[in-house]
Amino acid sequence: MATVLRAFKFALDPTPAQREKFSRCAGAARLAYNFALGRKQEAHRQREALIAHLRSQGMEQDEAKARVKIKIPGKQQVYELFQELRGGPGQGPGGIAPWHREVLSHCFQSAWIDADQAWKNWSDSVAGRRAGPPVGYPRFKKKNRSRDSFRLYHAVGAPTFRLESYRRLHLGSRLGTVRLHDSGKRMHRLIASGAAVVKSVTISCGGQRWYASVLCRVATDLPAPTRRQRQNGRVGVDVGGKHLAALSQPLQGRELIDNPRHLRRAARRLKKAQRALSRTRKGSARRRRAVARVGRLHHAVAQQRATALHTLSKGLATTFSCVAIEDLNVAGMTRSARGTAQKPGSKVRAKAGLNRSVLDAAPGELRRQLQYKMSRAGFFRGSEPTLRCPMTP
Fold it and tell me: pTM score, two decimals?
């Protein structure tokens, strides 16, 4: 028996009143995140200025850092400062958030946690404590540019979030019950049997559609490979731009899985929508409608790509006992061939088209999905960097 965290994502069908509440909660979370990030950046600037002043007086770098006692404020310090500045009833006129009682406090709390994590990711990356590509300096979230989202928590002992039916998700007394486009049967059965406990719910907006991602702690047995998987044995997967995957043995009668090229299929509509967007005036209502149309088209392409990848990765994970996939450097493969002013590149336009095809295939996402789906089945043995293989008996 193993305990894992598993997320169930549902498309929501909220009422107009619920949409307004979701937007207000997302706006509150964005304000709280920017407030926390502003306090962190201000403390960081003061710290760097003092260190530079001590260095100018001849002090060594390490000694100057040890001498400066300014610390980056965390969630608790940000919360105390926010209480002083938020305003509201009994606190006099003005304030940065006098309406804070009208939204859930979890919107502020989760945003401050996210700000702490974003700052930690950047500082660990600068200090060399974080693997992977460098993490940029944390940036503020801008309305109409960043994704609207907020996260809700509840006491596990007295759960507030629950499925009232397969198509109804209860989000507490303030937000009420919201209808689901999808069926929550799988999650409902896990919770009803006591195998799953809801930890949190993240509400987000994509392409003018609201989604709920329910994070559950699930107790599950790690099964052994099935009879069909043992019979099919191993399969090698070669991903590319022309074919989404080339398999060493057939999956549902096919060894070559064509690349659906969702972005290319939507190129004509995107071109038309983006051209209409470029002809609008900034700040106008017509521009907001044009931005929303472009966002819907890009969101539709992302959903189509995700559906194709999930279908392929699930078929591989449930059909074969071992899946071997190449470890591609996607960032290096899709680097521009433009070059520099001194050494300009060649065949830049052809390379740009190849880059679009590779990114549209999303080989990194396919590898990520295979990894966690094989792990969920209890088969993952990731000792080799290029092999994602279930344990065979």
Answer: 0.86
